[in-house]
Amino acid sequence: MGRVRSPHPYGHRKFITMSDGATSTFDLFEPLAEHCVGDDVTMVICPGIANHSEKQYIRTFVDYAQKNGYRCAVLNHLGALPNIELTSPRMFTYGCTWEFGAMVNYIKKTYPLTQLVVVGFSLGGNIVCKYLGETQANQEKVLCCVSVCQGYSALRAQETFMQWDQCRRFYNFLMADNMKKIILSHRQALFGDHVKKPQSLEDTDLSRLYTATSLMQIDDNVMRKFHGYSSLKEYYEEESCMRYLHRIYVPLMLVNAADDPLVHESLLTIPKSLSEKRENVMFVLPLHGGHLGFFEGSVLFPEPLTWMDKLVVEYANAICQWERNKSQCSDTEQVEADLE
């Protein structure tokens, strides 16, 4: 109910043709105020599973970030937008960073003086952390990264997704049902006779899709085969950001909620352990917040703007101010050295 009054920021949709023929899209929103340190800073944002720039929580966050002086680029997951057709037999997966990387490269090329704040929500948190950890070059021009409500390891999470506590099994069913609808809406592009499908993707997988009741079944029968993984275990191991987190050297804030019905408490040992070992990592764990909730205000009619939105922007502001002060100190030290 807190999302019914979400703002409607105005942006421009960009299209990028990928090397395999896929058409990736993202929406670009220009800042509505001067940034707190006067710099050109762009937030590159990756939404949650099957989400895009038109989702209410994304609209709310983008509007707030714009009003704080940030340009925002929001990835639309491949296949998630109902009015954009797939142009290759592939859609977004749990850890594929190709489309996000293409968006980041576009921003770097179009705005050569801009600095980046990387933001990922839920599944998007996995993608952005994996992207940064894949190669050191991906961290160039990045001021910091924020991941909100991700689970870090799909392999460890799959067991908890079948449990009924906090209605997790029911949520699993609902998300699987939504994924089925999206996949079937692109049936011709993915399974049509004219399509050059991945060798491992067979027509029988389509029939299995109809009977799937969990995300794991969909991942095993369809999603992993887009990238040629031989098993679900291999897919989850390779696509999870857990094995890439230690390669991230920019400031990294990992946010979860203790009462998140999707992310089991056993998964939170991953960010906790990382934050204890790495000075650049901050782990934030409020008792309440649910999954991408973090509402403030009255119980029945909370404010559209959430604690999550404020936290991400305030953290980004603090990092920008810290970078500005650090460069000013360096300039002062250089001047003093020259005078001596």
From TrEMBL:
An example Gene Ontology molecular-function term: monoacylglycerol lipase activity
PROSITE patterns hit by this protein: UPF0017
CC per GO annotation: sperm flagellum; sperm plasma membrane
Keyword DNA repair: no
Topology in the lipid bilayer: Single-pass type II membrane protein
Source organism, top-level taxon: Eukaryota
Enzyme class label: hydrolase
InterPro entries: AB_hydrolase_1, AB_hydrolase_4_CS, AB_hydrolase_4_sf, AB_hydrolase_fold, ABHD4
Alphabetized UniProt keyword annotations: Cell membrane, Glycoprotein, Hydrolase, Lipid degradation, Lipid metabolism, Membrane, Serine esterase, Signal-anchor, Transmembrane, Transmembrane helix
GO biological process, alphabetically ordered: acylglycerol catabolic process; medium-chain fatty acid biosynthetic process; medium-chain fatty acid catabolic process; sperm capacitation; steroid hormone receptor signaling pathway
Pfam families: Abhydrolase_1 (PF00561)
EC number: 3.1.1.23, 3.1.1.6, 3.1.1.79
Catalytic activity: hexadecanoate ester + H2O = an aliphatic alcohol + hexadecanoate + H(+); 2-(5Z,8Z,11Z,14Z-eicosatetraenoyl)-glycerol + H2O = glycerol + (5Z,8Z,11Z,14Z)-eicosatetraenoate + H(+); an acetyl ester + H2O = an aliphatic alcohol + acetate + H(+); a butanoate ester + H2O = an aliphatic alcohol + butanoate + H(+)
Compartments it resides in: Cell membrane
Active-site residue list: S122 (charge relay system), D260 (charge relay system), H291 (charge relay system)
Transmembrane segments: none
Location of the AB hydrolase-1 domain: 42-297
Family: Belongs to the AB hydrolase superfamily. AB hydrolase 4 family.
Protein name per its UniProtKB record: Monoacylglycerol lipase ABHD2
This protein's encoding gene: ABHD2
